[in-house]
Amino acid sequence: MKKKITFLLMFVLSLSISSAQNTFRFGTSATPEGKTLLVDSKGLILDGKHIIPVMGEIHYSRVPESEWRREIRKMKAGGINIISTYIFWIHHEPEEGKWNWSGNHNLRRFVRICAEENVMLVLRLGPFCHGEVYQGGIPSWVHEKAGQNPKYKIRARTPGFLEDCTKLYNTIFAQVNGLLWKDGGPVVGVQIENECRGPWDYLESLKNIAVKAGFDVPFYTRTGWPALRGKEIFGQLLPLYGDYADGFWDRKLEDMPGSYADAFIMRDKRMSSAIATETFSKEELSEDSPSLSSKLSYPYFTCELGGGMMPAYHRRININGRELKPLVICKLGSGSNLPGYYMYHGGTNPYNPLHTMGETQASPGTNHNDLPHMTYDFQAPLGEVGQVFETPFHEGRFIHQMLTDWGSELLQMNVDSLSRHYARRGAFEFYNDYVRIKNESGTSHVTFKDYRTGGATIDWTTVEPFCKVDDLIYFIEIKGKKPQISVDGKAYTCKLNKQQKAGKLNVCVLSYEKAKTAYKIDGKLLYAKNGGILYKSDSCIVEEVWTKSPVIAATVTEVKKADAPRVVPMGRQAVAAQPVEEDFAKAAVYTINYDTSGMNNYDNLFLRINYRGDVARVYADGRLVADNFWNGKEMWVRMADLVGKKVELKILPLRKDAPVYFQKEQKAMIEATKGDYMLGLDSVEVIERHTLEFNDAF
Question: Which of 55, 74, 132, 581, by CA, is between 20 and 30 Å from 383?
């Protein structure tokens, strides 16, 4: 009897192990050409090989259509190989039955460009998206229906709402029909809903609607937060997770409140307790409940790693750029096999004459914070107008290139050792003790430990792996450490930027500054010469460089001084309320003029405005085109929106006693100002974007 029980137990265990190794069965996984994309409990399998891809978010409807291809190429240069994007319902159907799929809303063209640029795409379908959009992207007419009919409930499994969701999904599918992975297109996945607590049958209904509409894709996802109400059916939706360096949504006016610092430690918990804390309870953002423990068989993917962050009116977060690398280091060290960034590229909200298109406390839904009407820069690696935020762009790029060259090996390696600051996965060691604001002198890096390659063993390194070119391994220095590589028991001290032998291996350790110029393109390592970024264009490699214009200067004239600043009121959600249009009658007003005679293309010209105050707005012929909540950083404006129009800059003074959070550097600026408020315009510069053909290799 004992032998039978033992045999039965072994049989059950073997079934479990076999099941865990099998791939998930979602939609069609093969293209007409025979390429395959599958998902198993470790990660993604492309053409039979495990990979660790990198996903980055950009919102096509927040970026000019003419810029899509360029910006996608820049995202790829940063190491992004899967693009994710929200499809904001309110952007496409602001009035019931009146759809807009043209211009910046031309989803089909965006998807086609992704296909042409050979990048995969995940569509986040909604109906609710959030994205700091007015009402989370749900149109006002939907809210009106809910107000008129108590049986019509938004984000619920009620007939009327699901009928409207069916129309939404059907209409979206019509835009991407023929462009799914199974058609040879780029669409590999769709996300159902967003930050939804369920119940599960609501999410299941939406997935069924999506599948019936035609979304037959390799995988379907949901955000892994908050905890679901009711037990899910395993294997239907992949839960994807996230973490943020800080949060505009927090109610507190202090540095790094709550658990934001936990994003900077290694841990075996996937759920972040710092996302959307204004909406969800601690319990909903806690560890997965035992009834859902089967989700640990899901691969550990993320879709919202936030190295950047928007400033809300009441909370003016200033991202320094060093936050992104520690976030991804901690997630990789903790076992994650897909870094997904929100946002990787900023943008601008579409103009709406009836109401703001940004989140506001005064709206019927998603009304916890006041966000700018127009700007959605997010302090992302690529900003609102495509400007490069150098530190997160390059430090992220270094890791992404490492994942391209070593990701297949890393994915096979489990977490062998895990503590707050250190983790080991096989031959990869991850370390981080950097914490935003709390320990900014800390460091973050990944190094080799007992790594077999080229017939040798790399015992340890004090430098970070970057890429492989033929039999040459490139590393990047870790600042403050002597660059050394130990091979087969012998330590070699490396000269920076020089190829050398380390035992049997050919190695080269790049300085941090040299690495910022280095791009692996078509199997070669190329070096930018002008401080720009390199990417592949139609028929060549180009270097994109941003410089102050040597020929076009902005002339600024003050036409009205500011009146006494307003007393900042509290909004409906008990945080400071942003100014309304009438308040700008008290603003300082400046006209901006410039001479662009002889030019016929202004797409590569931008205004960079450095000011001090509360809120700044730029108007062109009286229409709002840009706004900014001051957090110590510059404001960017596309000159293509201004040329031939009367341009006015309005700045509201900032009261020293405003109930608004600022970081210590900005607080010092405010306190150093004489009087009761701060107001100043330091510079308005014309910045040019140049695209230079690149011909030289290292």
Answer: 581
**Where are any strands of DSSP class E within 263-394?**
301-306, 340-341, 347-348, 375-376
Residue that finishes a domain, picked among 407, 438, 469: 407
Backbone angles phi, psi at 116, to 5 degrees: -65, -30
Distance from C-alpha of 107 to C-alpha of 127, rounded to nearest angstrom: 16
Note whether 84 and 204 are same-domain residues.
Answer: yes
Q: Say how far apart CA 560 and CA 147 lie, in whole Å.
A: 44
Successive 10-residue mean pLDDT values, the chain, 698 residues: 36 33 90 98 97 99 99 99 99 98 99 99 98 98 96 96 99 99 99 96 98 99 91 93 97 96 95 74 58 61 97 99 98 98 99 93 91 99 99 99 99 97 99 98 99 98 99 98 99 99 99 99 97 95 97 97 97 97 98 88 96 99 98 98 97 98 98 97 98 77
> Which pTM value belongs to this model?
0.95
Name residue 68's amino acid. W
Picking from 437, 393, 139, the residue whose alpha carbon sits closest to that of residue 260 is 437
HSE on the CB side for 320, CA within 13 Å?
14
Write the DSSP symbol of residue 578.
P
Pair (341, 430) in one structural domain: no
Rounded-to-integer distance, Cα 283 and Cα 51, Å: 34
Q: Which domain holds residue 298?
A: 2-407
